[in-house]
Amino acid sequence: MRGLTPEMLLNAYAIGIFPMAQSRDSDDLQWIDPRQRGVFPLQKFHISRSLKRKILLRTFQITTNTDFAGVMAGCADRPETWINPEIETLTRALHRAGHAHSLEVWDGTELVGGVYGVTLGAAFFGESMFSRRTDASKIALAYLVHRLRVGGFSLFDTQFLTDHLASLGAVEIPRASYRKQLAEALQSPADFNALVGEPAPQDVVQRSSHTS
Known about the structure:
alpha+beta, Aminopeptidase, 7-stranded mixed beta sheet, two-stranded antiparallel ribbon, 8 helices, 27% strand
């Protein structure tokens, strides 16, 4: 869609739709409105015993909004991607305006995983994540969920449900239920940056509602 602005993109999220390109080389965007929406109930994020051990071992270092461009590039670095140059440009503009955020996972100085998304009110729209080390994306999500809880978010939209997300506690809800939760979240305040610095690993694993 030519002439799409960051403001128009935010308005689309606010009514429950989001853009995707057919490929990185596609000039056209499609507006997606799934009948079944993937969401993470923030109080039911699942941390397995093995993931808990890895988090407590401090295998990786965690930052937020340190390398937004790097996270987007990592998410697009796959044979097929829906992130085309227009989506990248618009989303980076939202980041500069404070409406898009990234969480990075580092192994020393190497960016090995991360997740990014868009925020409106108390809604976080998870866009994509990547991993270049075993469990790096799971660790990114664990730290992200903790941050969203601390910041007062009530909706974590994953767009679609994958087996990977389901294993961590994500579920599908009907479109009508999603839009009800979205409307409520848009009326509530939240702050992605309410958590100063990164939490202790113990805090991340203890806030999980259940482990196995």
